[in-house]
Design a protein that fits this description.
By secondary structure, the protein is mainly beta. It folds into 3 domains: 85 residues, no CATH class; 113 residues, no CATH class; 106 residues, no CATH class. The strands form 6 sheets. Strands 1, 4, 17, 18, 21, 22, 23, 24 and 25 form a 9-stranded antiparallel β-sheet that branches. The protein is elongated, with a radius of gyration of 28 Å. The model has no long low-confidence stretch (mean pLDDT 97).
C-alpha cells in the first residue's frame, strides 16, 4: 500500500537575493526564464522585480525645436539593464542625409542614460523602408539602448524639424517597459507545463515583446531580480492537501433537452502541524505571509509538490494531547507537481 509515511514538508524560512540579470528568451518572444532560477519567493518585501528595457515615464518625448535640425527632448525616465535612469530635458542635433534621399535616424537613451542618435543608412531614393538596417530604413540600435522615437528626413537642406518628420508610436518607434504587460509565474507549471520553459519559474508576456530592432536582429532585453526561498523542514507535519482545481456541473433545461456548463474553482492547500507552545513557534510568526511550501511524499525519492500562497493558521490547545495548528495556504495558482 502506497502511503506518505516517510513524507517531508518544508516551508520558506528565509530568502536568498539574486540581483538583476538578463532573462533568456524561450524562442517565442513571450516566455522568459533565468538559468538557475527555479522558484521565485512571493513573500512581501521579497517579490520578483521584472524590468524590461523601456520608457517608464513620459510620452511623445520628442518635439520640434526652433533651431535647424534640432529636437527638444522632454525629461523622462527609462529602465536599462535593470537600472532606472532619470533623463533631464535636453536638445539634440539630428543628422540629415548627404543628398535629397530618405534617411531614418533613431533617437535613443543608451545604457548610461545619455541621449544618443543612431543614424540610419541613406537610401538611393526618397522612399522610406520599414526594414531595420536597410538603406532608407530605421537602424538597429544597441542591445541595452531604448528607442524613444525616430526622425525621418527626405531632404539634405537644413531647416527646423517638422512634427510630420517625428515618429514616436509606442511599439513601433518607441519602446515602453510595460508594453506588452506580463505575468510572473513564481513556481512554474511543473510537469503539466506546455513547454520546457514553463516548467519552472518564469515570466510570460501577454504578447510578443515588440520587434527585433536591436543589434543582430534581437528583441529588447528583459531584466529580473528575485529572491529564492530557503527551505526548512517542518518536523511534525501530517495530512498535507495541495491546492487543486475542482469542477462543478450545472445545467439549463430547454424545450426537449438540457445543456450543461462546467465551472472551476481553486481550493485551499493545507497541512496540520504539531507545535510546541503554539505562540513562539517559528510558523506562528509567519502567519498571514505569502510563503512557499515544498512537500515530498517520500523524503528518499525525487518527486515533490510546490505550493505558494498566504498562510493562514487555526491553533488548538488541547488538554490531553500536543498543541497543534492547522495551516491553510490560499494560493493564486494550483500546486505544481515535479517528478524531479
Amino acid at each position: 500500500m502506497a502511503t506518505s509515511k516517510k513524507g517531508k514538508m518544508l516551508f520558506e524560512s528565509g530568502q536568498t537575493f539574486s540581483d538583476f540579470a538578463v532573462m533568456e528568451d524561450s524562442g517565442d518572444h513571450k516566455v522568459f526564464t533565468l538559468t538557475g532560477a527555479t522558484v521565485f519567493s512571493g513573500r512581501s518585501g521579497y517579490e520578483v522585480q521584472v524590468r524590461p528595457n523601456g520608457i517608464v515615464t513620459g510620452r511623445n518625448i520628442l518635439a520640434p525645436h526652433a533651431d535647424d535640425d534640432k529636437l527638444t527632448v522632454s525629461a523622462f525616465s527609462a529602465f536599462s539593464k535593470g537600472v532606472l535612469r532619470e533623463v533631464a530635458a535636453t536638445t539634440i542635433t539630428v543628422t540629415r542625409p548627404a543628398t535629397a534621399v530618405a534617411k531614418i535616424n533613431s533617437i535613443t537613451m543608451d545604457d548610461s542614460g545619455a541621449i544618443v542618435e543612431v543614424e540610419g543608412t541613406d537610401s538611393s531614393t526618397s522612399a522610406f523602408s520599414e526594414e531595420r538596417g536597410e538603406a532608407g530604413g530605421p537602424p538597429e540600435i544597441p542591445a541595452d539602448s531604448v528607442e524613444i522615437g525616430q526622425v525621418r528626413f527626405a531632404s539634405n537642406t537644413s531647416a527646423p524639424i517638422q512634427n510630420t518628420e517625428i515618429f514616436q508610436v509606442v511599439g513601433t518607434h518607441a519602446e515602453r517597459f510595460d508594453h506588452p504587460t506580463w505575468k510572473t509565474k513564481n513556481l512554474g507549471s511543473g510537469d503539466s507545463a506546455d513547454s520546457s520553459a514553463e516548467k519552472n519559474a518564469h515570466v510570460v508576456f501577454d504578447d510578443v515583446i515588440g520587434s527585433p530592432i536591436h543589434t543582430g536582429g534581437t528583441y529588447k532585453r528583459i531584466y529580473l531580480a528575485y529572491y529564492s526561498p530557503i527551505f526548512a523542514e517542518i518536523s511534525k507535519a501530517f495530512d498535507f492537501v495541495p491546492a487543486e482545481n475542482s469542477h462543478s456541473l450545472s445545467s439549463t433545461q430547454y424545450y426537449n433537452g438540457t445543456v450543461g456548463s462546467v465551472s472551476s474553482s481553486l481550493g485551499q492547500a493545507g497541512v496540520t502541524v504539531l507545535m510546541n507552545d503554539n505562540i513562539t513557534d517559528t510558523l506562528v510568526g509567519l502567519k498571514d505571509e505569502i510563503l512557499t511550501f515544498k512537500f515530498y511524499p517520500d523524503r528518499n525519492k525525487a518527486p515533490y509538490i510546490l505550493t505558494q500562497g498566504i498562510m493562514g493558521m487555526s491553533r488548538t490547545f488541547p488538554v490531553d494531547s500536543q498543541n497543534q495548528a492547522t495551516l491553510t495556504i490560499s494560493a493564486e495558482d494550483p500546486s505544481a507537481d515535479f517528478a524531479s
